Amino acid sequence: MALIVQKYGGTSVGSVERIGAVADRVIRARQAGDDVVVVVSAMSGETNRLIDLAKQIQERPCERELDSLIATGEQVTTALLSMALQKRGQKARSYTGAQVKILTDSAFNKARIQSIDTHVITDDLKAGRVVVVAGFQGVNANGDITTLGRGGSDTSAVALAAALNADECQIYTDVDGVYTTDPRVEPRARRLDQITFEEMLEMASLGSKVLQIRSVEFAGKYNVPLRVLSSFADGPGTLITLEDEVVEQAVISGIAFNRDEAQLTVNGVPDSPGVAYSILGPVAESNIEVDMVLQNTGRDGTTDFTFTVQHVDYEKALGIVREQAEKLGAREVSGNTKIVKISLVGVGMRSHAGIAAKMFKVLADEQINIRMISTSEIKISVVVDDKYLELAVRSLHEAFELDAPIASIG
Amino acid sequence: MALIVQKYGGTSVGSVERIGAVADRVIRARQAGDDVVVVVSAMSGETNRLIDLAKQIQERPCERELDSLIATGEQVTTALLSMALQKRGQKARSYTGAQVKILTDSAFNKARIQSIDTHVITDDLKAGRVVVVAGFQGVNANGDITTLGRGGSDTSAVALAAALNADECQIYTDVDGVYTTDPRVEPRARRLDQITFEEMLEMASLGSKVLQIRSVEFAGKYNVPLRVLSSFADGPGTLITLEDEVVEQAVISGIAFNRDEAQLTVNGVPDSPGVAYSILGPVAESNIEVDMVLQNTGRDGTTDFTFTVQHVDYEKALGIVREQAEKLGAREVSGNTKIVKISLVGVGMRSHAGIAAKMFKVLADEQINIRMISTSEIKISVVVDDKYLELAVRSLHEAFELDAPIASIG
């Protein structure tokens, strides 16, 4: 008998019918002999409805009040799911984050979990109950309601699984697992049976938004086996595990890409200490998130400095950079929004030389010009013109043997 | 500087605009130098929306889960009102029933308040904040969310006022006070400046549903001055006070009536001990609420037994009574749904003989036949055919000098 934590997102509980389907799925796990703790999000649309009410009153509402407001969304779902379980003859109890003492810091809207008091849950499980917990929320030491930020229900589920020493944390979504790349770009993309936490982190941060990144970090840190599954179809999903548990490891696990990047370049900056800070400092102070950063030595004692930001921040960043470039006496500032970042991810590349070389050759063979390159221990990212996205992904997918076998395709 | 508890019902907070108007009203009280604690209901329609969701899942949902579900309604309002106050520059904080520890028993859906921990509220008031508390809800000793039953926000407000030793508890509704009778029946009905708790109890239980009856009992018990006012218009409202504080007391304060009564009569029951129980016992066991009960000695060692129930229970009660009447060997069972109960209420009638006689004469002069009479210390009730309702109320209103002076009309 295992202890499973299951998490269902807003779409999975978006109507009373879907809540009923979730109840059926939970009961199947119970019938298989497992104890089940369920973490739920607000019904889809509900959080936005509440935020909209708040914004009608105040453009920037007090964060404490906003958290108390939107936390009601998950509370509603827990009660409804608990009723749906009881209707099917399964004993169940719902809890808010405060009731199971998911203690967080006081950073309203983006609180971090500090501890969970599990004794209420454990007692209920012993009594044969399914425990339904509101995701996304907690309580600070003063008793104020806090929320963990968008997607925080994943984090709630992982934290509960860690605190309860659960055998598996199952994240039910609208996809049936983690894929080698986006199937909308490469129809031969294949569901991975397993992937390591580190690979998953790289995939998630690169735009494969299956899981909230903080929940993956959390799961890795506390060694909680995490599984991504579909709440609309049966199947084994993708298991996210520690590296040493992976038996047969492909060199490359997947190809991630991110369309939402824009590039800014300052050419011919006099190369002196503090140049990078002079440019990026004011950008960061304006709360603009910077992704890739590259600096190359140029000619004549000058340097070329490039970084990428999200599209939404591009114009603002360009203004700041132009101002700084003038102060620094740089030669030229340029920018480009028509780019895409493509990344190979795989823990296997640590022990395999030549992955980068092979990647560059594949792109060269397709006449795709590389604008930027950045590497880390388990990933290689390139920036190319966005028109090459599909061509690049498909070529790499085939070259690194990620394609599904022909026989298994629909 | 006084401490005022203000309570706003669902209609008063039914939209973001109305929540804004409530914020304005709260701030006026602050500007007058008073400390203010606000108790709010769910936005109108919200509780029914949530109950409807629950009923789609389960016809009779678990009461614990239902309470957790519907308690979100008030929580939403508290956060929104707190934001509206902050937007206007007034410091404010919202609290759920659990957060201010409104401790109740575990009778879900109809819990009773046992204690309130006021130190959080007191600290906030000292810091210059308006405290916004969710009405209708509390928490039991296990930490489960409870609700007090429909209209329970009034009770929350009175209990908070009692615990905080507030100077006044103001209940804002869609009427501007307590009237001598229903203005829709008698246009010359007059707003009372004050009324005693006992009179208010009789008025409320007789169908003048301005306040939840339990809140009036509570206010009387703890001697909390209670005022009923309109949230849509300015005015002094009606103050509900202890009898000995009433300076100038009219003999009759008002005329209440109840259209929702049906009469059942058993004639010719052999008059032996236990007859009343034989008839009413099975009725009560079927959860039918009985209002008036009369028993008259009849002829030939038999007795006539009459009682009234709500219309909705009439058919069911009739079936039970027929069965019992047969067992008891009664002569006849009859019933009547076309009746109305009219009551004169006033603490002054204690010291004034002849009120009943005057009432019966007024009705006789209008040729109105009285079917039943029942009296208590501060009220006299008669049951008459429902077609006489308006005539009876207007005649009594004039005869007992309750009419508004002509000059003040329209």
TrEMBL record, chains A, B:
Binding-site residues for ATP, renumbered to this chain: 7-10, 173-174, 179, 184, 209-210
Keyword ATP-binding: yes
Any one GO molecular function term: ATP binding
Residues annotated as domain ACT: 264-338, 344-410
Domain of life per record: Bacteria
Swiss-Prot/TrEMBL catalytic activity: L-aspartate + ATP = 4-phospho-L-aspartate + ADP
Pathway membership: Amino-acid biosynthesis; L-lysine biosynthesis via DAP pathway; (S)-tetrahydrodipicolinate from L-aspartate: step 1/4; Amino-acid biosynthesis; L-methionine biosynthesis via de novo pathway; L-homoserine from L-aspartate: step 1/3; Amino-acid biosynthesis; L-threonine biosynthesis; L-threonine from L-aspartate: step 1/5
Enzyme Commission designation: 2.7.2.4
Entry keyword Amino-acid biosynthesis: yes
UniProt-listed SUPFAM superfamilies: ACT-like, Carbamate kinase-like
A Gene Ontology cellular-component term: cytosol
A GO BP entry: lysine biosynthetic process via diaminopimelate
Residues annotated as binding substrate: 47, 74
Family per record: Belongs to the aspartokinase family.
PANTHER family: ASPARTATE KINASE, ASPARTOKINASE
Designated name of the protein: Aspartokinase
The organism's taxonomic lineage, starting at the top: Bacteria, Pseudomonadati, Pseudomonadota, Gammaproteobacteria, Chromatiales
